[in-house]
Amino acid sequence: MQYRTIGGEPEVVEVQTPEPGPGQVRLRVTAAGLCHSDAFVMGLPAEQYVYGLPLTLGHEGAGVVDALGEGVTGVAVGDPVAVYGPWGCGLCHACARGAENYCTRAAALGIMPPGLGSPGALAEFMLVDDVRHLVPLGDLDPVASVSLTDAGLTPYHAVVSSLEKLPAGSTAVVIGAGGLGHVAIQVLRAVTGATVVALDVSEQKLDLAREVGAHHVLRSEPAVVDAIRSLTGGVGAQAVFDIVGAPPTLEIARRTVASDGVVQIVGIGGGTLPTGFFSTPMGASVRAPYWGTRTELVEVLDLARAGAVHVEVERFTLDEAPEAYRRLHEGTIRGRAVVVPSA
What we know:
The chain is 25% helix and 22% strand. It is of the alpha/beta class. The chain folds into two domains: 2-149 and 292-340, Medium-chain alcohol dehydrogenases, catalytic domain (Quinone Oxidoreductase, Chain A, domain 1), CATH 3.90.180.10; 153-287, Rossmann fold (3-Layer(aba) Sandwich). Strand 9 (195-200), helix 7 (203-211) and strand 10 (216-219) form a beta-alpha-beta unit. Helix 5 (153-160) packs across helix 6.
């Protein structure tokens, strides 16, 4: 499944099976997740597009080790694995602590994630550049688990970086209860003492938010600010996770965050949030987290293994992937869309 022309639709094409070079691992892909980030990339004009063409899509990947390049140790053919997507240099301070999502050298070295510059997982086979970017899946179902590599890891990273704001008695607001948002709700319930309030414009997604554990669900509209203030005794929410990131949702976040709280802008809806005196409350911080660390991916998969987190998925074949992207754009996917490329 490749994006081949600027402004065009993704296409299913035939390519040669890749051969692993030194240090590389080839996977037979068992599942690949679709994401709004893909639509964002494919919607960029030519002057802003930097990911190369043709681009094999798919930055959420799981598979079985199929072949090893020279010098690879630590995995064996047949091992089921998930792919850690934000590849870094492996040598800088951030990478040394597993935070390759914040690698300081990746851009300069031309290192790009699978599906976002490097060939991704929406194929029968994919190459992974280094064994450190593989995490054992064990007995987890790859179709049910593959979206945890982004839709689980990204909200988990945002939540755990906000833990000091979320003791018992606190309130967390999740704006957007779709693919990432419904996982964020579960993560908040699993690792914090917060009361969770979910917002969305879709009744279907609000129903999903209820199912996965939100204490309160509210329609995302300007009047919701007063409702949240009422629920919190006028204090506001100690943490707001904006999974949408559009100007209207960021305005809700700005007006509902409590003093000394935090706004985490997770979504890439094109909005920005000025912060400072006369904008955000005193002491409130604003963060734009990106993906998560390798250690956090292990922890997310452990939460899934324990039954604390799951992803609602709709399953598609590779030939059905263009239709899955269309439905993702329309907002009619329940949870995440997952493609199963291999027979």
